[in-house]
Amino acid sequence: MIELKGINKIYDDGFQALKDIDLTFEEGKINVLIGPSGCGKTTTMKLLNRLTDYTDGDILIDDQNMKQINPFELRRQMGYVIQNIGLFPHMSIFDNVATVPKLLKWNKHKIRERVDELLNMVNLDPETYRNRYPAELSGGQQQRIGVIRALAAEPSTILMDEPFSALDPISREQLQDELTKLQQEINKTIIFVTHDMDEAIKIADQIILMKDGEIVQKGAPQEILANPANEFVTEFIGEDRLENVLPSIQDMIQSDYPSISLNTTVEQSIQLLSRYQISDIPVVDENGAFNGIVNLFDLLNNKRTDLKTFIHDTLPTITENMDSHRLMQIFHEHKSTVYPIQTKEGNLAGVVERKQLVHLLHQFYMNKSGDSEWSS
Amino acid sequence: MDFITGLTQYMIENRSELLALTIEHIVMVAYGMALALLVGIPLGIIAARYQKLAPIIISATNILQLIPSLAMLAILTLYMGLGFQTMVIGLFFYSLMPIVRNTYVGIKEVDDSVIEAGRGSGMTPLQLLGKIQFPLSIPFLMAGLRVASVIAVAVACLGPYIGAEALGKEIISGISLQSDVKIYAGAIPATLLALIADFMLGKLETRSKQRMA
Ligand SMILES: Nc1ncnc2c1ncn2[C@@H]1O[C@H](COP(=O)(O)OP(=O)(O)OP(=O)(O)O)[C@@H](O)[C@H]1O
Ligand SMILES: [Mg+2]
Fold first, then answer.
1. Does chain A have fewer CB atoms within 10 Å around its N or its C terminus?
2. CA distance, residue B163 to nearest chain A CA (Å)
3. Is A277 in the same domain as A324?
4. Which reactions fall under this protein's catalytic activity (chain A) (predicted)?
């Protein structure tokens, strides 16, 4: 765990790049620093491996003051992907990747295996690329080498300063997946700088949004999206994205919501509804197939005894893997206290209640001025 | 035509003497260069590392080079007497500037992001110098060496004035005897030496840059 306590950084020319930063990077989490150019992201990174010194405050690494740790040892245990890639132009790809293992005096065989493993990981064939020089690679390939050079000695903490900026969308996605996988498997603490909010949302456990050397907001991606602290955050996140953070139907579904079978009597149904304090209940046949909904008022106002005659099925079919925006649209057009969700075979999978959706709307729109376009 | 036959004949007749002088010339230049590298590289590194010392070191070597060659050699004889060593020291002084300056520039030119990557990998300043900065400055150093050796081949021709015999011996005795043949017999190998040095070190320079682009 890395803790920054009241960190200030004033550069030699008097410019204050960081103002009173309090920040915790939990072990085994992906922390994403994001913010406009010049807000102090790179500066924060460089404090962590002591490439720059802070002016005052404290940085604790596993409760030990960082100044007590030998800076060279510290850096060898902290992978660093620098913003401008910075491959060593006079060294082969092999030697570039092997930099830290060599400093740590790993044996040759182990280094060789590790380099090949890493090259394979980023889809560069070791036979082809091992002996090339950086100038003989494309920009995206160089960036991948920059990333694996930082991973080579299996550091416990990895600092990555816009590591995927030169990659095409496909390799970028691939490396993001690789990174989250890596982090889950071996529990690395990752501190990642990006300008790309989509990237941040995708990989972050914690997002730290900075502006002018200060932290504006930090928290889990969903937290920030759901409750942007101020105008700036909303603007930075982008309005579109706020609308796109609806949880999926699968995440909202209540599979333990009660249902009744076709052969239940009207009397039993009313009892059940009042026991659960609900007004609508889905009906399924003996195979679990969804048949429709019955409503408490209909049941109470009529003397009919056959439950089947009360079943109505006026809602459009909603399936589990449907886009939740479509559900919002249905919610908007059809009033109902519950929205039954079906599996693709037509069985009842559960329901989403109207009040859940109302609550979501409140949450997302509390911080926004207004008009909703769920249907986009 | 007569002149060329005469010259060829003279050169063939005196080939062992000329060869010995050429070798002497090469050895003198080589010693001067070796000394210049030995002293110049560390000076260049120190200048690059301690920014405050840089102007002092660079201007001192610069001044050495500005002293007219004959004057410098004459002054050296005051302290070292006549002979081979005096010439070697003269060549060393002359070559120092291109070597020091190019080492300095070569190290300074290394891309900041490369340095940062090296530091970020946990290299000590010495490792950074040995593994990154110095290797990357070699193409510059090669260019300096090339300039220095061409100058040194020329300056070495003044050898006979301070008792260091080399190809200059033929040239200078050619002047006093008013013998075109002797002058050319010294001048041609000396020029060839300069050309070869320039060409070979140029090749080395290109090779040291290869693949780094
Ligand atoms: N060595 C330095 N001396 C003076 N000021 C500096 C120095 N390095 C950075 N700064 C200033 O500190 C501020 C923060 O810089 P930093 O590099 O941390 O920004 P950043 O958030 O990484 O920006 P970007 O997204 O453009 O990389 C900038 O205003 C920058 O000009
Ligand atoms: Mg930056």
1. C
2. 45
3. yes
4. a quaternary ammonium(out) + ATP + H2O = a quaternary ammonium(in) + ADP + phosphate + H(+)
Residue A299 maps to a domain = yes
CATH number at residue A289: 3.10.580.10
Coil, helix or strand for A31?
A: strand
pLDDT reported for residue A321: 82
- CB atoms under 10 Å from CB of B186, counted, come to 26
d(CA A40, ligand 1 centre) in Å: 6
- Residue B119 touches partner A, C-beta closer than 8 Å: yes
User: Nearest by CB to A85, which of B113, B121, B123?
Assistant: B113
Same domain, A268 and A328: yes
Inside any domain, residue A370? no
Q: How far is the CA of A227 from the centre of ligand 1 (A)?
A: 29
**Do A171 and A277 share a domain, yes or no?**
no
Ligand 1: which atom is nearest the Cα of residue A52?
1
pLDDT, tens digit, 9 for 90 and up, residues B55-65: 999 999 999 88
Q: Measured from the CA of A13, which atom of ligand 1 is nearest?
A: 4
pLDDT given for residue A249 in this prediction: 84
Which of B110, B112, B121, B207 to mutate to test binding with chain A, by most A CBs within 10 Å of its CB? B121
Looking at residue A375, what is its pLDDT? 38
Cα nearest neighbour of B138 on chain A: A90
Range of the domain at A350: 249-362
Q: Which residues have C-beta atoms less than 6 Å from ligand 1?
A: A 11, 13, 15, 17, 37-43, 83
Q: Is the pTM of this model over 0.80?
A: no
Question: Is A136:B211 a contact under the CB 8 Å cutoff?
Answer: yes
Verify that A259 and A232 share a domain, yes or no.
no
Residue spans of alpha helices (H) in A2-70 = 41-48
Return the pLDDT at B193: 93
Q: Does residue A172 sit in the same domain as residue A297? A: no
Task: Report the pLDDT averaged over residues B142-168.
Answer: 90
| Average pLDDT per 10 consecutive residues for chain A, totaling 376 residues | 94 94 92 94 95 94 92 94 94 97 96 95 94 93 94 94 88 87 84 91 92 94 85 82 71 88 87 89 89 88 81 86 80 87 89 86 58 40
CA distances from B97 to A7, A190, B1, B58, B203 (A): 46, 48, 43, 7, 22
Q: What is the mean pLDDT of residues B87-96?
A: 93
Distance from CA of B212 to the nearest CA of A (A): 5
Contacts 24+ apart (CB under 8 A), B202-206: B202/B146, B204/B142, B205/B139, B205/B142, B205/B143, B205/B146
Which chain A residue lies closest to B117 (C-alpha atoms)? A86
B199/B82 Cα distance (integer angstroms): 32
Fold of B2-209: MetI-like fold (1.10.3720)
Q: Are residues A81 and A136 in the same domain?
A: yes
- Which residues on chain A are in Cβ contact (under 8 Å) with B51? none
Q: Give the minimum alpha-carbon distance from A120 to chain B in angstroms, rounded to a whole number.
A: 22
> Given this model, what pLDDT does residue A365 score?
58
Ligand 1, atom 2: closest residue by C-alpha: A11
Same domain, A260 and A230: no
Instruction: State the total domains in chain A.
Output: 2
β-strand partners of A209 = A34, A217
Give long-range contacts, CB 8 A cutoff, 24+ apart: A105-114.
A106/A153, A114/A152
What pLDDT, on the 0 to 100 scale, is given for residue A240? 66
